[in-house]
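Good day; I would like, with your permission, to put a structural problem before you. What I wish to show you is a protein chain and, alongside it, a tokenised description of its three-dimensional fold. Here, with my thanks, is the record as I have it:
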Amino acid sequence: MKRFSNYIKSKDNFVLTIIYSSFLVFSIFNSEKIYSQETKDLFAQENKEFFQKQQTKIKSELTTNLVLNQIPSAFVSLGAYLPIHAIVVEKNLHKLSVFKMLLNGNYTLVKTYLAITGKEQGDKKFRGDNRTPEGIYFIVGQKDGSDLIQKWGPSARKYGPKAFVLDYPNIFDKRQRKTGSGIWIHGVDKDDRMQRPFDTEGCVALRNEDVLDISQYISEYQTPVVIVDRMPVVPHEDLLKERARVSEMIESWRTSWENSDFETYLSFYSPQFQSLGKSKEGWYEYKEKLSKLRAGEIKVEISQPKILAFRNQLLVEFTQRYSSPDKKDFGRKYLYLRKEGNIYKIIAEKWYAIPKGKSELAVTNDTSPQKRSD
């Protein structure tokens, strides 16, 4: 055991450290008939020392904004406007990373923080299962720690000085009948809690100074948070190819709508598509009726899309301006796509109206949608 411990320490490898630390945790809680109390105490001390080391390592893991050659596979595109930040939470590596996309399409790693997640491992499925959900989420609000204490009493101290609210369950989750709510990124009541890597009821917890620091990178309804066990990375060239492929598909969707080519337009939608409380057939009849009334006079403009990927899912977001002789609107559109065979199909869409008078750049940073539809 000691020889193995010394080997790991000599390599100074983060992943090996986490594997060894996990082994120590397992040993502590599954060793009643194997180890003496003295040995179990040694395991506990070893585990504490290793996680203290990783806390220091991650805390100092800042970048010099070097361009990344290997990009998180989730970030097909982060859109077109600054600031463009996105967050990745890697549960098995116990870290939260902030990335930035530059105007030229390159990516940099901005900062990395130590993070702890749910007491139970795996993807969240049910309310109260103490698991942290995995998928693509957006920060849709924030809560001040003092307000939480005033509302819920001293027990709310466990959330620290601030909490950021995630939109769990999202549409993908609801289609899989996942339940639960109240998934946040928040602080802690005691610093030593950060030595227990799986210790929340499903939220993501950071040090208090870190949850305050991360505020500078967050825009509500705009900053995506992708939660995974461990994020795969891909060459930038591969990401550019995927971005071009998805962007071409979205452009074909837009032009078929604008040209009232409903056979092509409908081909982009899954048989399981639902929107506005309608099935695909009911929604199609509704859209076709409107299109016939406005044929040849429809104009649809969209911004460069934000494209996020997770397993067999795509989330595409953009600003959309629609105009016809009798209707004009401007808002933010979300398309939820799922891979069916080798093709992505739209299973749902949402639209938020934007107040008149806001520029497209202002819309990108807007945090208060006026209307929601699913």
